[in-house]
Amino acid sequence: MKLSDFDYELPRELVAQHPPKLRDESRLIVLNRSGGDIRETLFSNFPRFLQEGDILAVNETRVIPARILCRRKSGGLVEIFLVRRVSARRWIAMLRPASKLREGESVLVGEGELEIAIGASAGEGEWHVILPAAIEENRFLEEHGHVPLPPYIKREDDDRDRERYQTIYARRDGSVAAPTAGLHFTEEVLFDVKRRGVTIVPVTLHVGPGTFRPLANETVEENRLEPEFALVRKDNWDEIRDARRSGRRLIAVGTTTTRVLETLAAGALANQEERVIDGETYLAGTTDLFIYPGYRFRIVDALLTNLHLPKSSLLLLVAAFTDRETVLRTYEWAIGRKFRFFSYGDVMFIR
C-alpha cells in the first residue's frame, strides 16, 4: 500500500491558525461509516447523534508547556522541546539547533538565573536534559514553558492557547500535543451527553511528538509509530467490555482514544502492569499500534475525529475506519465548503 495514495491538496488558508471563538461552534461533519450521506451541522448538536446506553470514551491527558526557549552562554538561541519524563527533573527532549550543543553544556532560561543541563544523546535526534533544581518542576514548566503548538500553526503561542489547546476534562499531565477531537467539548455539551443516558468513560494516552512527524516510508506497512504511554482504570475497562457484550455502542473521541481501546481489546498493551493510584487500580503500559486500511476494528463502533494532515498516520486510521475513497471524497467535500483543518479546525463524526 502506497502512502502517496493518501495525499490530497489543501489550500493553505484552510489550516486553522486560531481556535474558534467558542469551542462548540466548530462545524461538524456527520458521515456514515459505509459512505453515502454526508451532513453538516455545528458541534453543539453532537449529542443529538448519540443514544441512551452509548459509551463515550475520552482521552483525559493534559498537554504540558513542553517548549522552552533558552540561550547558550555564548548568546545563541536554543529551543528545548520536552518529549517524555524519565524521573524527577530528568527528561528526554528534542533540541534545536542540536548540532551546536554538546553533552555537559548548560543553557540559560529566563533572566539567566536558571540552567538546563544537556546530557547524553538518547538516539533518534533526542537528548537527555536535566531541569533546574532551584525551582519546583511543575512551577518551572508553568512559568517558563510554552504551549507546544504544532508546526503548521505559523505563530507564537499566547495566553489563550493555555486554555484552548487543552480539553476541558484534561487531568493527567504528559502530552506534548492535544487530543484534538476533544477540544470541541464544553460543559454544556457534556451535560447534554449525560442527559441522554450516555456514559462517559476516561482513558489516557500521552500524545508524543510522533503525531507531528511525517511517516518515513512510502510503503505504508513499513512504517512504525513511537510507543506512547497509556493508562486506563481497570473498572472502566471492565465496564467498556461489559457494555460491548450487551450490544451497547462504543464511541471513541479521537484517534488517540481509539488506539488505546483497540490495543487493550487486542491484549497488546506492552510492558503492562497494574498500578494503584489514589486507591484505584489502573492498567498501565505502552502502545505503538499503527492502524491503517485493512485493520479490523475489535471494539470501537463510532469515531469523532478532526480533519487530518495528508499522508499522516491519523488520516490512515480514519481511512481504515471508513475506506480510502470515502474519507478522501469527504475531505474534498469539506475543502469545497471551506471547513477548517487540523488541530484548531473542524471535526467529523463517523458512525
Broad shape = globular
> What's the CATH topology name of the largest domain?
QueA-like
Could you say what the CATH architecture of the largest domain is? 3-Layer(aba) Sandwich
Portion of residues in beta strands equals 25-35%
Helix-strand pattern: EEEEEEEEEEHEHEHEEHEHEEEHHE
Oligomer type:
single chain
CATH class of the largest domain: Alpha Beta
Low-confidence spans = none
Average of per-residue pLDDT values: 95
**Sheet with the most strands: spatial strand order:** 2-1-19-18-15-3-13-14-17-16
Number of domains: 2
Question: How many strands in all?
Answer: 19
Provide the CATH superfamily of the largest domain: QueA-like
Largest sheet entry = 10 strands, mixed
Which characteristics define this entry?
single chain, 351 residues, alpha+beta, QueA-like, Thrombin, subunit H, six-stranded antiparallel beta barrel, 7 helices, globular
Give a concise summary.
This protein is an alpha+beta fold.
What would your notes on this structure say?
Helix 6 crosses helix 7. This protein is an alpha+beta fold. Strands 2-1-19-18-15-3-13-14-17-16 form a ten-stranded mixed beta sheet, covered by helices on one side. The chain has a six-stranded antiparallel β-barrel with strand order 5-6-7-10-9-8. The chain has a two-stranded parallel sheet with strand order 4-12. The two termini are 25 Å apart. 19% of the residues lie in helices and 31% in strands. It has two domains: 250 residues, 3-Layer(aba) Sandwich (QueA-like), CATH 3.40.1780.10; 80 residues, QueA-like (Thrombin, subunit H, Beta Barrel), CATH 2.40.10.240.
